[in-house]
Amino acid sequence: MSLGTKCDEQRPRCSHCQRHSAVCEYPNLRKTSSASERSISVTPGPSLSEHPHVDADLNLTDLQLLSHWILIASRGFGDQAEDMMAWQKDLTEIACRFPFLMHGILAVSAFSMARLVPVAEGHHYLLAAAHHQSQTFPSYRQIISDVQRNMSEENCHAVIAAAHLIAVHSACSVGCPGLSDTIGQGQSSLNEVCEWLSLLRGARRIMLYRSDWTTTGPLSFHLGRPAPAIDLSCSPEDDHLAALGGLFANWDDSPGRHSPSDRDAYQMTLTLLRESYATSTYPQQHEQERAGLKMALLVWVEKFPQRFFELLSEPRPEALILLAHYCVLLQRRAARHWFLEGTAERIMSMVYHLLDEKWRHWVAWPVEEIRAHA
């Protein structure tokens, strides 16, 4: 076709070229279309396959899980509408640049799906959850292995979000009968609970590591702290908790059973638990100071001493009894977070089975509370 003649773009040859028996050359639109179909891009720019961070190995199940996350599963994160929007929109967009975060989102979404479908179909989603969780860990672990060197202002929000999602996945594992059939029966179940608590502690520490970065990010609302002066009388249940001091108030220091460091760890953990109960009654007075039940749960896990964690892992009956009383707060929060539903009940069942008969009267009150609200 002559450049000086306007083409009428008929196919396969324009009318001008047909009259002059000339070769009609069009751009290879089929090739261009095929390339664009192979890559999905929200905005004009390089295709996803060319992006250095993108894992393009998505299938229809993954797309279904991403849709489920945006529409349903993300609603269990945060208290305010803007908090949920951060998980629904901002962090989903960040995940498009950091595949380990996308896998974390899909893993939690798969757990949510498994809860909503028949058991036979739910097994498929539990397998998907396990797969995506395994894909989350390598890059995440590489970063947190040396946080000072590997975490940056660019990736910190993805790392923090992934830490929270990994902890949520662990909570789902504790509370999901389809995945944790042994829960409530003994030591293997306790290992899962300890892993969840450890991951939650780790997520809080990563969150607080560079608060100068996180205060301006989508997860800044997780930085809220309760009021520094905590009035224990605010809790109507403090009498139940204060009585737990009898577990170790009259200990002797005989070798091989008790030590001063153990007693200190229990006393500190009990004090934190009493403060958490009092904090759970606080209203959300200020937007930047979101106290209440959420912070009560997080601060206890974040602050209890490492020695208590070791005593719980053994397990010592006194540590199990304190954990049982924490379950009451956990159950009350579960009404706001789908991924905590059933977790308190299953941990309480585990504690009850692990305790000898002579210790079970110490958990009578939390058992009654949890049964009444199950």
Summarize the structure.
With 374 residues, this protein is mostly helical. The protein has helices at 15-19, 29-38, 60-71, 81-95, 99-116, 119-144, 147-150, 156-175, 187-209, 211-214, 238-242, 260-279, 293-303, 306-313, 317-334, 343-354, 364-372.
Question: What would your notes on this structure say?
Answer:
This protein is mainly alpha-helical. It folds into three domains: 1-35, no CATH class; 56-221, no CATH class; 226-372, no CATH class. Helices cover 59% and strands 0% of the residues. The protein contains 17 helices and no strands. It has helices at residues 15-19, 29-38, 60-71, 81-95, 99-116, 119-144, 147-150, 156-175, 187-209, 211-214, 238-242, 260-279, 293-303, 306-313, 317-334, 343-354, 364-372. Helix 3 packs across helix 5 (99-116), helix 5 packs parallel to helix 8 and helix 14 crosses helix 15. The protein is globular. The model is unreliable at 1-5, 19-23, 26-50, 179-184 and 285-291 (pLDDT under 50). Residues 5-32 form the Zn(2)-C6 fungal-type domain. InterPro entries: Sterol_Uptake_Regulator, Zn2-C6_fun-type_DNA-bd_sf, Zn2Cys6_DnaBD.
